[in-house]
Amino acid sequence: MIRVGIVRLEDYESWIKSLGYDREWIVQAAQADIYRNLVIESAEAGMFSLPLTYDSYLVIINAAEVENFKEIVSKLSCKAPVALTAYIGLGPSYLEAVKRLRTLSKTYEDALEEEELEDTAVVHLDLDGYNELMNSKGLHYVEELMNSALHRARKISSKHGGLAYYAGGDNIICFVPCKCLEGLLNEVRSRDFKVGVGIAPRPRDALALAAQALDAIRLERQNERVLVIRDPRSTKRALKS
Predict the structure, then answer these.
(1) What is the DSSP letter of 46?
(2) Helix, coil or strand: residue 23
(3) What's the CATH architecture for 120-230?
(4) Axis crossing angle, helix 24-44 with helix 66-77, rounded to the nearest 10
(5) What confidence tens digit (pLDDT) does each residue in 190-218 have?
(6) Is it the case that residue 114 has pLDDT exceeding 70?
C-alpha cells in the first residue's frame, strides 16, 4: 500500500480578503514560505513534498513516520497565517491514496500502522541539452517542450496509478506504484530525456537514488538512457533486474 499526506490551508478565502486589495504579493510570498518550510521539514523526516494548488500540498510519506508528519503540520501551523489541516490517504496506487484522504484520528492512525507499505519508486526525467536548447532556441521553445513532456508524463503516470509534477528547469519527477514501474518506463522512454530511477523505503532516499542514477548515466553509461538504483533495504518487488 502507498501512504500520502495532504496539508491544506483552512479558511484561506477569509484570510485573503482580510488583506485588502493590494494583497497578491503578500499571498504569493506567504504561500511560498509555507511550501519552503514544508519541503525542508518533510525532507528531514524522510518524506517528500510537492505542490498541488497553492493552498494544498502533497506529502509522499510511505515508510516515513506518520507521527512525524503530524508534528510537521503542527509546527508549521504556528507560523502560517491560517490554520493547517492534515489528511492521510492509503491505497494501492498514488491516485487511490489521494482519493481516500481522511483526517487523522487515533483509530485511523492505528489502522495505518497495520498496513504493509511498499517502497517508493521515483522516476526522474532529465532533458538532454537543456542549456544548449535555451541558448539556441530560446526560452519559449524550451517552455513549450517541457509543457508537452509534462503533459505526456502526467497522462502516462495517471494511467499507471502514479503522479507526475514539474520540478523546475528540465526536470520532471514521477511517483509510481512499484508493480507499475516497468510499464511506465516502457512508455516514458524518449530519446530527448535521461531517466534516473530510485527505489527505497523512504521517499527522500528514493529521490537521492534517482539523482545518483542520472549522474551515472551522464558520467559512466553514455549509451544508457534509463538506469535503476535500488536501496539494499528495499523489498525488490519493483522491476525485474
Answers:
(1) T
(2) coil
(3) 2-Layer Sandwich (3.30)
(4) 150
(5) 778 899 999 999 999 999 999 999 999 88
(6) no
